[in-house]
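hey so i finaly got around to running the thing on Transposase, putative from Acaryochloris marina. pasting the sequence first so u can double check i didnt mess up the copy paste, my clipboard has been acting weird all day
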Amino acid sequence: MAYSSSLTDAEWEILKPLLPEFLPPKKKTRPLIWSYRELIDGMLYRLKNGCNWEDLPKDFPPSSTVFWHYNVWRKAGSIETLMTLLHGQVREQVKKSPNGQR
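ok and heres what it spat out for the 3d tokens, dont ask me to read them lol
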């Protein structure tokens, strides 16, 4: 089910190629059962709606899984790095300096 916080196909096509470069390397654990898109949609749902992790709707991956990935990515600086890169791309599209300086 798509929510208003879910990535559109066009947004996912922009984000997908960036993930391997910016996400921390995965340790040799079990393979992912959930896609990165499903995990990110769960994170975005929680951020938009301000709910507890445990209150994520059941059509998202388990809340413990979404939280674990969010926490690992946040601590590694991956989320901040991705946001900075995407912000720079948007600034370039509107013909502004990518770093915010004139």
